[in-house]
Amino acid sequence: GVFLTFFYKGRYITKTKFHFNNTYKKMFSKTEDNGKGTVSGFAAACTAMANTIGVGNIGGVASAIVSGGPGAVFWIWIADIFGISVKASEIILGQRFRVKFDESMDEYVCDRSFVMKNSMGWKIGGVILAFFVAIFGPWTNVVQSEAVTSSVAEAFHLNPYITLGILGITVFLTIFGGLKRISSSMERVVPVMAIVYIGATILLLIMNINHIPEALISIFKSAFTPASAAGGFAGATVKQAIRYGIARGVYSSDAGTGYGMVAHAPAITDHPIRQSSWGWGEVMVDLVVCTMTALTVIITKAYIVFPNVTSAHLTTVAFGSVFGVVGTLFMGAAITVFAWTTIIGLYYSCEKSINYIFGDSKYNKIAVKGYMIYFLIPIVFFSNLEANLLWTITDLISGM
Q1: pLDDT for 221-231, tens place per residue?
Q2: Which residue, 73, 129, 32, 14, is CA-closest to 298?
Q3: Which residue of 244, 316, 342, 350 is most buried, as measured by CB atoms within 10 A?
């Protein structure tokens, strides 16, 4: 991230007008981009943001503070700032080395494996990577389903098995429709979801505006000096702040995971650089949402007051401590939608590995249908594991 930021001379950070015109301004444009592709650039970005704006911003940030103290938030910022150029590079690679599948599906496809093969000829490396993604990728979704069941149970007192059943059925119905149904759903849900959550968080911060300076001071102070124990918080070293901050920052923004290659490959655009502006657009939204979530948890002192609570459940009780039952109900619903979109976005990513392994053949179409069932197994049957263990598993799988 540091290398690429200097390589581009900081343009993915400083050229805000150019990037804004090629991202958010297009949300209100009725004209389509010129060029080849399967879905609009904005629809592709919404599919990408389904992963970027999700449980990582809510549960990931909360777990980072629990494990690394308030200082972890500073290192989330660092991961995001230098991650912008990384994600932009991934989008360029996805556009540059994408492949058109005609026989098994009418779609432009690309992911890390396609790039390894088509840019450097690493066919075997591509297969190994595709295997890791296809087999282990779905298991990172367990943090999503755990966040849903714990938050819905807190808000609505609904039996987890009912929650998981509804989640599994709705995810299956969406992914069964393929890319166009996925991107269409994300185009409708993701922008509204982000705006509503940011609006609710702004209201909470306004109600506690006097505590914001103190929270910011604790973030900067704990980033470079150990955070002392307080109440139910055990304290954290600087090493823990850096480790958990960067890990959660990478997970929430997806910068460096290669997901940008997958989601933006089918985008209709006249040039890869124009589409790469979404590297800036997505990570900036991630930075804003992560910061607001962090301030909510720190200002309410939820990580101190509720020592046995972590992940998205902690953000839920933080909202509940300010807004009462309404806040708890809101977060239960919001986290459910966040997790739902993230799971669907990740499915699309994992499916590309199946596409790579089987190629543009009739076997690809058969394998994809069977893979949908395998993808749902971790989500529905393994969400009862302890949250911190699930985040550790997710970190290990991301590394693989």
Answers
A1: 999 998 887 76
A2: 73
A3: 316
